[in-house]
Design goal:
Length: about 120
């Protein structure tokens, strides 16, 4: 856990969140500033600054993150109409919390390009 990391504090229960899913490797919760009707963040319990900080030892964790995101999207009723995953990396990539997180966005038509 990184002491000054917002998401590490959420995982530790120091900051409240609206939990959607949790297991020993990942934690998913509703975004407090949603960009779509359904906007969930799924984060690894292991602190990784961003996806580029992952190494070979994180391969199973990254796979688990994606598979659990699939389960969450299905549970939220997004599978039939579709949804989008977003992983922002670095300041220019739009990352504002420097703990790897995957956005699950859905519940409306999502335009392309995104921004």
């Amino acid at each position: 856990m990184a002491e000054d990391c917002l998401f590490c504090k959420i995982i530790a229960g120091e900051i409240p969140s609206n939990k959607v899913y949790s297991d020993d490797q990942v934690y998913a919760f509703r975004d407090i500033n949603p960009a779509a009707p359904t906007h969930i963040l799924i984060i690894p319990r292991k602190h990784l600054t961003d996806v580029s900080a992952a190494s070979g030892e994180d391969q199973a964790l990254l796979g688990h993150l994606l598979l659990k995101a699939n389960e969450v999207a299905r549970a939220e009723g997004l599978a039939d109409a579709g949804y989008r995953y977003v992983i922002n990396t670095g300041k220019d990539g739009g990352q504002t919390v420097f703990h790897l997180h995957l956005h699950i966005l859905g519940g409306r038509h999502l335009d392309w390009p995104p921004g």
